[in-house]
């Protein structure tokens, strides 16, 4: 490999690229990474980390109200968007610095500029420098999708939402996925009048129908307007700066902010992949095998840019597996079965394994256990909001093939339970486990 400048050149310093760079370097590889935006990628800079901090911040609206039932006086409490926004930005800056330190301490060279491929073993930086590498890893992630309709540019995406100069009074959020539902909850709790609109007849299609129906019901109770089968015709900016959104059925919505959250497209435009013969999917995704290698032997890809599973922990595992396989003499692949996921909506959803519908399509003998309850905190707070836990089992041994939760702290609760589903434990194994009382998680072992 001495004929090349580096053993590995990584394009993109997000979760997958950083992990791959660090592990490859630990195996003795000479590694460099180019990042045209900020080190840390979508998750750290403009995704799950700042969004989760906004979720925490928005929850204080309900917590302060509930606190009165617990004896606290909260009269005069006010909210300042600028303080939350700036504190979140400061935390993002801190994490970006730590990611850079991690790469530096592992002797990974960082180029803070765009890189494009000029050959199967070469890249060119925006500064004009050409670099050669034995292996090139594409880890550029995905980018928010914006539809091709008149006036679409008047909207913003999740890239810009964290730096709003002020909160709008009204917001339309377009989309039915986790990003749309999470920001609907955030904005609503911060006092914004929210319309969530989606072109389909459901939101969160990959989640269990009953759990999603519960979220829609609770969201509407919290005064979030949800409109299904909404087809955008155009967006017009009015003289007062507000936006007029036209539906194809002739109806309109006036708003101060339009947030596009309709999906994310692999970020491969202009990277030069097609020029060197790398096979791309119709959405621009880099097509790779289980070993993360493309059809060009020296070109690999991990993370959202492959559009396999767009989740940060998956990108990290793919990057680690790639580095171990290519540079650590330890060939391995990532298992995509039984991945736990969460939507940090209000209340949050968490899920692992098969939904009820999926289980019934795959297994002849399916049974569902449920627990529909009010969290203890909600009882004393006089908040009539119920949680729902579902356990889907299959076969005569009642093996647990799916767990689906909606309620406070669902994401925190599911992680440990996901281990049990991954280990193929049965309903009896759950029943045989002593309940941790009083807690919400004890409902997992008390379902009837």
Structural descriptors:
5-stranded antiparallel beta sheet; FAD/NAD(P)-binding domain; 448 residues; 7-stranded mixed beta sheet; 3 domains; globular; alpha/beta; single chain; Enolase-like, domain 1
How would you describe the overall organization of this protein?
- By secondary structure, this protein is of the alpha/beta class.
- It folds into three domains: 6-144 and 265-327, FAD/NAD(P)-binding domain; 152-262, FAD/NAD(P)-binding domain; 347-445, Enolase-like, domain 1, CATH 3.30.390.30.
- The chain contains eleven helices and 21 strands.
- The strands form five sheets. Strands 1, 2, 3, 4, 5, 6 and 16 form a seven-stranded mixed β-sheet that branches. A five-stranded antiparallel β-sheet has the order 17-18-21-20-19, sandwiched between helices.
- It starts with 5 loop residues before the first strand and ends in a 17-residue tail after the last helix.
- The mean pLDDT is 96.
